Amino acid sequence: MVDREIQTEHWPERTTYDFPVRPIGALRWFGLLPMGFAVFWAWMPGHEIFRLTRQAQVGGGFEWFMVGFLSLFLLAALLPFSLGLFLLAGRTRLVVTRDQIVTTEIAGPIRHSRKVRFADIDRLELASRSRPPGGVSALGSSLAQLGGLSAVLKNGKKRLLVAAYPRDWVEDVTKEVSGLMGQQGGAPAIVRVEALSDPAARPEAEELAPRPIDSKVSLETKASGIQLIIPPLGFWKGSKGMIVFAILWCLFMALFTAVMGFARTSSRTIAFSFGCSSASFG
């Protein structure tokens, strides 16, 4: 039976599970960091947009163009702000229809949804952490009680459905979701994955995994142990193409700064010339 903290609605066409705000304790306040960064990021373009808007009302197409361009920076600031808001006051809504699962992350007016079809799901993966040993902090103990639910697709990819809720809640919802999927076909298997809270308690591996065919890592055995040699990825692969983006961005910002400086100088020159002309006619 699903916990009463989760508002559940059963309809012929769908079943909805409305989870409350994530019980992550003091960790939620870390959401203020990306939110503060977003405000700091948006302050300068926002101030410039306000100044250019007042100038554009007098007349000027270039100012309106710059207002539209700088608005892109404000839109970019919404991403870290939304992430912080989801961490600070986010909750999850899980909707199971006749042929798919819809997960919606809700944080005030901001929402983000993702869908997974029943036909693409191979199994449901219930993740949790092992019980921590004695002497751990209260925060670590509370985090160990949390779990998550993922859908493992037939192509090997994973889709996160529920995260950072008490493991008992997630397990009860997982059983119901599996039963609802079974009504439309075969119920997927539920696999439990448990991460160790104490890495030292990890059991020794009985078998060595085979080396991937495309791996360039070499293993050398020495008297004092083993040595792994990992070659560098290189200029392009190591940066994932970001080095090219950085160069283009620096060139763009240099051009943008030059254009803005020229525009300000031109506007001041025109204003000065207009003032002198008015004085001479006066």
Describe this structure in words.
- This protein has 282 residues and is an alpha+beta fold.
- It is built from six helices and eleven strands.
- Strand 3 and strand 4 (100-107) form a beta hairpin.
- Helix 1 packs antiparallel against helix 2.
- The longest helix has 40 residues, at 242-281.
Blueprint (SSEs and pairs):
Blueprint: E1 7-10, E2 15-18, H1 32-58, H2 61-89, E3 91-96, E4 100-107, E5 110-117, E6 121-129, H3 138-143, E7 146-153, E8 158-166, H4 167-183, E9 189-195, E10 218-222, E11 225-229, H5 235-239, H6 242-281
Parallel strand pairs: 6-9
Antiparallel strand pairs: 1-2, 2-3, 3-4, 4-5, 6-7, 7-8, 10-11
Helix pairs in contact: 1-2
What labels would you give this structure?
282 residues; four-stranded mixed β-sheet; extended
Q: Termini, distance in Å?
A: 87 Å
Q: What's the total helix number?
A: 6
Mean pLDDT: 80
DSSP strand content? 25-35%
The side-by-side strand order for the widest beta sheet comes to: 1-2-3-4-5
* Oligomeric composition of the shown chains: single chain
Largest sheet: 5 strands, antiparallel
Instruction: Output the helix-strand order.
Output: EEHHEEEEHEEHEEEHH
Q: Structural class, judged by helices and strands?
A: alpha+beta
Unreliable segments (pLDDT under 50, ≥5 consecutive)? none
Specify the overall morphology: extended
- β-strand number: 11
Radius of gyration: 28 Å
Helix content: 40-55%
